[in-house]
Amino acid sequence: MNWNCGSRHGHERQTPVRFRRFSLIHRNPSTLGVAALTLLTLASASAQDSTIRAIQNIFDPLSAPAEILYRISLLVLATCAIIFLIVAGLLTYAIIRYRHKGGTDDLEEPPQVYGSAAIELAWTVPPILIVVVLVLVTARTIGEIQKPKLPNDAEQVRIIGHRFWWEVRYPKYDVVTANEIHVPLSDRSKRIATEFVLESADVIHGFWVPQLNGKTMLVPNHTNTMWVEPYKTGIYLGNCTVLCGAQHANMLIRVIVDTPERYQQWLNEQKATPSNDQAVEEGQRQFIANSCGACHDIGGTNAKGVFGPDLTHFASRQTLGSGVAANNEENLRSWLQDPQELKPGCLMPNMKLGDKQVQSILAYLRTLK
Ligand code: CUA
Predict the structure, then answer these.
(1) Sequence-distant (≥ 6) Cβ neighbours of residue 323 within 8 angstroms
(2) Could you give the domains of the chain?
């Protein structure tokens, strides 16, 4: 029997979507840049910047704490490079200068040196000074990163790691979402900081968006914090960085940096109750009847589950399955037919929905803007 029980209901599988699911993420950055520029020109100021900032390294910081880390990494790298050049240079010099030359060379003993204050001081004092300087600079950096002086009106986002997705809460605004974290753009002259309060619902996860800040763990029964202060709008990509189970690699992070106006607009949209469209009433009924509400919350309905992502404004998100696929009709249909197809090992089981059920729930979810 076909392992995919969708076929029990006699429908054809859709074209496999898994090979296309990264298309959102792995695009040519230059094409994206051009596309984003065009978009920016065409769109109003409050539209979202869709530039993908996918650089997964620390050498292109676009946020205040990432810049601090970048500066200290340059200092440490430069110090190590200078030490390497001096040591390697002296070694090369000695190898060439005192190489085997034949003749009387084999018979003569080199000059024997016993005790030299100059040499002893040279290889003791500078290394100690280097270590002291690096310790002081590192200590100051740790202070700046771990105990920042954030503006009083800093935004706060609570991020809770789950296998294998991110719960995202904005306590001040009573907004709950998942996987896509909207934060406001900062300005060097007028700081707008966002503090992330990081927790875990199950095992240890790691939060890392290299262009925004360093890596921070999400530990069960413990709260960590970090902060971001981004200088450019766009979509910043990151990953869970601690092996947390089968779908660890697909526990993707999207931080969407909006202009303060667009950010407010997004908050207002998220605060609103989703429209209760009569045309998709059947989908809502099926959603509740098939116990989807035991795991998912949809504002204004009887669905009040907390184990899975809040779906109140599901259709407003760019991706589904924590970034595993673009949030379009085709992928959503595949997900409803069997989530294990797109994300094998994820904790949502195959609900064995029939064709009609899939269609009505799909239509309903697509209205949750
Ligand atoms: Cu969560 Cu790896």
Answers:
(1) 25, 179, 237, 250, 251, 252, 253, 254
(2) 15-45+274-369 (2.60.40.420)
